[in-house]
Amino acid sequence: MRGRDMTSNKPHERRRTRAMGAEHHRDEGSGTIHGLTLAVTLCFLLVVVLLVAQAAILTHRAAKAADLAALAAADVARGLSPGVPCDVAARVAADNGAQLSECAVVAPENTIVDITAVIELPQPLAPLGPARGVSRAGPPPGEP
Known about the structure:
This protein has three helices and three strands, in the order αααβββ. It has helices spanning 11-26, 30-77, 85-95, and strands spanning 99-106, 112-119, 131-137. It has a three-stranded antiparallel β-sheet. α2 (30-77) runs antiparallel to α3 (85-95).
């Protein structure tokens, strides 16, 4: 038996060996498909994360524009700067890449200003509505 090939010459054993080999070859390439599926899924998730991050950045930008516009309008309302409070607020918001959507000078002193600034989100996120920033500014406590 030494030196001889250990494979059997019996027909039923040869068929079993061929069948086992054929089953083994059916799995060839499945790792590639799984790898591609994983890569596409990860790319999709990366795009979603980037879009959410972009929306968050635009929301912070709208809040910053509202804060600056409210401060400028409050200075005008108190008489520290010339102009009309809501006109100044609109200009400051536009300078910061936002649009003024609401402006109100609060009674009774008429020195506190409420501002809402918006920035439109890019097309994939547009159905969510604009990024919105809201702010209120006025004199420090104890000052008119």
